Amino acid sequence: MQQVQNKNPEWYVIQVISGTEENVKQSLFQRRESFGLEDYILDVFVPTHDVVSVRAGGTKVKRKKNILPGYILVQMRVTNESWYIVRNTPNVTGFLGAGNVPVPVSGAELEQLKGKVEQNTETFDTKYKVGDMAEIIKGPFEGNEGPITEINTKKGSLKVNINLLGRDTPVELEFSQITIKK
Question: Residue 38 sits in a domain of what CATH number?
Answer without folding.
Answer: 3.30.70.940
